[in-house]
Amino acid sequence: MDSRVANRMPTVERRIESKKKKVLELLRSEEAYGTLTAVANGLKISRKSIYDWMAKDSDFADEINEIRESVIDKVEASLVKSAVSGNVVAQIFYLKNNRPLIYAEKKEVSVKTEEKKVLFVSAEDAEILERSIESLPEGQRSEN
Question: Which of 14, 39, 73, 105 is buried most deeply by CB count within 10 Å?
Answer without folding.
Answer: 39
